[in-house]
Design a protein that fits this description.
The protein has 449 residues and is an all-alpha fold. It contains 18 helices and two strands.
Length: 449
């Protein structure tokens, strides 16, 4: 005789509540809710009815595949997965884990190198050519010292490729560029997809800015003859050798039909003179402070831009509009460096000093190379035109050096035997108005009779 089966025990109230709050129950409730709304709106599709006569014989004979079964493992909580994704976007926006703090410098460098080499493999400088340029550098150093009537710092030439130049520049400029980090993203918690989107967009915006910087540095390698392509001072207490970019030097000599050795002498003289000026503690400190203040202003600009995007999203509630504002109609990241009024004022100060540096270096390079070659007017004119067409300085560091105004300013100072006063201390550095009217500087220095 078979014993009567016991009735199953009813679950406790706590177990029932746990089942109702399970992920599977939540999905079922959502599906039922959607089905009900579609039915009320009249958009629920009618079931497809077909008789056996209407079904093709080959489909009737085909074996139906086994249904694919999917289930969420019991030990995975969807809320935890969502929270981890939110944390990932937040860390991406802050740049955590990237080289050099908040910026992935490896990625920036790779883009800069790709632009510098135009995506091709770059050959090393031939040893014979490297040695020859190092010897020219020693000759130039002696003639610069004679022109200045004072010894110059015993620097060495380091003949480099464009790839090597890009790497050195990014390393030395890294401290200033890192100020372009994104503002802190909002906290993105469970059930807050908008905050997740905002965190992701902060990351994309910051990354796009740094990639644009990398691209511009890569472009700059095609006009850079050496380390001092811009009036950016070297890091304090830097013992770095003076870089000479051989591929740019060779291309320039070919483009202007000039003797490569004559161009090499000019470049060596120019780099030595730039190093002498920009390594002076007073000049170095003032310029670095100005550059850092200029770049630091981008933090405020970026924060204001970000706040405007968040405000737009809050008003419209449409993430698509926010994405379009970042990517534009073409689907490409749109990044604009818009100068504030404060940045324009700082830029004017930088440009005034940079114009004086450019004029000073050009004027004395012409003298030094002239003492070797007899006449260097044709080389001086070629370099003057090249310098006048360099527009990348403004985009990267706010530099808008006027080589012609700088040459005229320096010539006026030399006519009054005042050139040695130009870099005496920070009070002797020219203002924007004094670059235009050199006699204002002479009056301020009490050098007018």
């Amino acid at each position: 005789m078979v014993a009567d089966e016991e009735e199953p025990t009813k679950p406790e109230d706590s177990d029932r509540a746990e089942q109702q709050n399970s992920p599977e129950a939540a999905v079922e409730d959502l599906l039922r809710s959607l089905e009900q709304e579609m039915a009320e709106a009249g958009t629920l599709p009618e079931p497809l009815e077909m008789s056996e006569d209407e079904i093709p014989e080959d489909e009737m004979s085909a074996e139906m595949p086994e249904p694919l079964e999917m289930s969420v493992p019991d030990d995975i909580d969807p809320r935890e997965v969502f929270a981890e994704l939110s944390d990932l976007f937040g860390r991406l926006a802050k740049g955590e884990g990237a080289m050099g703090g908040g910026v992935d410098w490896q990625m920036v460098r790779e883009l800069a190198v790709k632009v510098a080499t135009q995506g091709k493999s770059e050959a090393y400088v031939e040893p014979g050519r490297r040695i020859h340029l190092e010897e020219l550098f020693k000759v130039a150093e002696m003639h610069v010292a004679a022109t200045l009537a004072t010894p110059v710092a015993g620097s060495k030439a380091e003949v480099v490729t464009r790839t090597e130049w890009v790497t050195k520049m990014l390393e030395d400029w890294k401290q200033m560029f890192e100020q372009l980090s994104a503002p802190d993203p909002p906290e993105a918690g469970f059930g807050d997809p908008m905050a997740m989107l905002q965190s992701l967009m902060v990351a994309l915006s910051s990354t796009a800015r740094m990639m644009k910087i990398g691209g511009m540095v890569g472009e700059l390698s095609h006009t850079a003859f050496g380390y001092y392509v811009l009036a950016v001072p070297p890091p304090e207490k830097s013992q770095r050798d003076i870089a000479i970019v051989e591929p740019t030097l060779a291309d320039f000599a070919k483009e202007w039909s000039l003797d490569a050795d004559h161009v090499g002498l000019w470049v060596c003289c120019s780099e030595i003179l730039s190093h002498e000026v920009l390594s002076q503690p007073e000049v170095n400190t003032v310029l670095r402070q100005l550059y850092e203040a200029y770049i630091d202003e981008f933090d405020l600009t970026m924060e204001q831009e970000w706040e405007s995007k968040v405000e737009m999203l809050d008003q419209s509630g449409d993430p698509g509009e926010m994405l379009e504002s970042l990517f534009g109609e073409t689907g490409e990241l749109t990044v604009e460096f818009t100068e504030s009024e404060e940045q324009q004022e700082i830029s004017n100060q930088i440009s005034a000093i940079a114009s004086a540096v450019a004029g000073y270096v050009h004027h004395l390079s012409q003298k030094a190379t002239g003492s070797i070659l007899g006449s260097s007017d044709h080389i001086a004119e070629a370099f003057r035109r090249r310098e006048a067409n360099n527009a990348l300085g403004r985009q990267i560091f706010g530099i808008d050096a006027d080589i012609d105004a700088g040459i005229a300013f320096v010539q006026e100072l030399e006519d009054h035997n005042a050139l040695d006063r130009l870099w005496k201390d920070e009070t002797s550095l020219p203002t924007p108005k004094e670059i235009e009217l050199p006699r204002l500087w002479l009056a301020r220095m009490d050098l007018l009779a």
